[in-house]
Amino acid sequence: MAQSEAATIVETGAEAAAHGGGSGFNIHPMDQFVVQPLFSDGAVSIFTVTNATLWMAIVVLATALMLIVGTRGRNVIPSRAQSLAELSYGFIYKMVEDVTGRDAVKYFPYIMTLFMFIVLANFLALIPGSFSPTSHIAVTAVLALLVFFGVTILGFVLNGASFLRLFWVSSAPLALRPILAVIELVSYFVRPVSHSIRLAGNIMAGHAVLKVFAGFAGALGVFAVVPVLAITAIYALEVLVAFIQAYVFTILTCVYLKDALHPHH
Amino acid sequence: MATDPRESVLGEGDAVASGMPQLDPSSYPNQIFWLFIALIAIYFILSRVALPRIGAVLAERQGTITNDIAAAEELKLKASEAEKTYEKALADARSEANRIAEENRAEMQAELDEALKRADSEIAAQQAESERRIAEIRDSAAENVEAIARETALALVDALGGQPDSSRVDAAVNDKMGGTA
């Protein structure tokens, strides 16, 4: 059951009376984020095929389409699709190499997995009527916690107890070090929070704003041209945000991974 | 719509206050489960097929470029060698041409010298011949002058009524002519 943007706008008006919302501006910008079953009316259990399932599956298919189908020619002189795949590969590979270091390229497939999932989920979520998996804190928190635990475990496995020296700023004056250690420790544990909320918050806020303006457009009649123009501008911004947030998430992952590989300041 | 989302989410407890489906924990297990499925699927797509393939294509391209650059370098070297050979051939040809021109010039000079010498000797011979003939003519002219002078003297003596004495006239003429004859 595709939740079409246009249908929602119409609904917003139509259901306003039913819900007793009263005013003409009865807008439900958060409806687009509701997780609901695709084939039944029941509650959402763990294995239920939901709209979230559908759009994550589309993300997987898009990954395959972009990186496998696009490169099936294996051309020395790439086609457009192939150069897109090569561009993504080179972009993340270089990021891992530059930010984390040459010895980190063995973690490149994991980071590339994160990036492809987030960037494609963000872009596909911009299709009207789609569902945005990355707008859900449940999804981004899992991604961030994967990074957090992965980096922490890797740090202890590779460096042993000396990984704790990450929190002991040896370049600071001795008197300040315990205080700095507390700050460093807190900031270390806050990482997954900011890491996940940044992504979910950006995507959710952008889509909600789009929906609010769409609701205005539904209620304003002829003057809808103003919110429609605003939607166009915000949509352009959201295209930018979709990429930038995926980029930020990935580069922060690289930065955190660097701490695990080289914990000494 | 099969379900009204607001009934399931906004209809209960604190979710109404927030209005955020993101904060509805009942959907978390579902999302997390499918997220893991999706991530594992993407990871296998990437690590088994996509990344090795793209890496191979990039490496192959790098190799091709390196080879092409090496080939270009080689060709450039060959070209500069060919140019050097050409320059050398040109210089050789030029010096050869100079040599031939010099030779020709010398030959012509020799021929010219010889011709000049021959011409000089011919001129000298002709000059000598001419001088000899001039001398002859002068000699014969002097003799003629003597004969004419004698005849004229005789005729004058006769015209003046004297008795022409040829022996005295001869003596007188000889005396006047001196050794010039």
From TrEMBL, chain A:
Gene3D superfamilies: ATP synthase, F0 complex, subunit A. Keywords: ATP synthesis, Cell membrane, CF(0), Hydrogen ion transport, Ion transport, Membrane, Transmembrane, Transmembrane helix, Transport. One of its GO terms (cellular component) is proton-transporting ATP synthase complex. It is found in: Cell membrane; Membrane. Pfam families: ATP-synt_A. It comes from the Bacteria. InterPro entries: ATP_synth_F0_asu, ATP_synth_F0_asu_AS, ATP_synth_F0_asu_bact/mt, F0_ATP_A_sf. GO terms for molecular function: proton-transporting ATP synthase activity, rotational mechanism. CDD domains: ATP-synt_Fo_a_6 (cd00310). It is a multi-pass membrane protein. The chain crosses the membrane at residues 52-70, 107-131, 137-159, 166-190, 210-232, 239-258. HAMAP family: ATP_synth_a_bact. Key component of the proton channel; it plays a direct role in the translocation of protons across the membrane. Belongs to the ATPase A chain family. This is ATP synthase subunit a. It comes from Palleronia abyssalis. The gene is atpB.
From TrEMBL, chain B:
Signal peptide: none annotated. Residues 161-181 are annotated as: Disordered. Its main location: membrane. F-type ATPases have 2 components, F(1) - the catalytic core - and F(0) - the membrane proton channel. F(1) has five subunits: alpha(3), beta(3), gamma(1), delta(1), epsilon(1). F(0) has three main subunits: a(1), b(2) and c(10-14). The alpha and beta chains form an alternating ring which encloses part of the gamma chain. F(1) is attached to F(0) by a central stalk formed by the gamma and epsilon chains, while a peripheral stalk is formed by the delta and b chains. It holds the Pfam family ATP-synt_B. Residues 72-129 form a coiled coil. It comes from Palleronia abyssalis. Keywords: ATP synthesis, Cell membrane, CF(0), Coiled coil, Hydrogen ion transport, Ion transport, Membrane, Transmembrane, Transmembrane helix, Transport. InterPro entries: ATP_synth_b/b'su_bac/chlpt, ATP_synthase_B_chain. GO terms for molecular function: proton-transporting ATP synthase activity, rotational mechanism; proton-transporting ATPase activity, rotational mechanism. This is ATP synthase subunit b. CDD domains: ATP-synt_Fo_b. The chain crosses the membrane at residues 32-51. The lineage of its organism: Bacteria, Pseudomonadati, Pseudomonadota, Alphaproteobacteria, Rhodobacterales. It is a single-pass membrane protein. Belongs to the ATPase B chain family. F(1)F(0) ATP synthase produces ATP from ADP in the presence of a proton or sodium gradient. F-type ATPases consist of two structural domains, F(1) containing the extramembraneous catalytic core and F(0) containing the membrane proton channel, linked together by a central stalk and a peripheral stalk. During catalysis, ATP synthesis in the catalytic domain of F(1) is coupled via a rotary mechanism of the central stalk subunits to proton translocation. Component of the F(0) channel, it forms part of the peripheral stalk, linking F(1) to F(0). The b'-subunit is a diverged and duplicated form of b found in plants and photosynthetic bacteria. It is found in: Cell membrane; Endomembrane system. The keyword Amino-acid biosynthesis does not apply. One of its GO terms (cellular component) is endomembrane system.
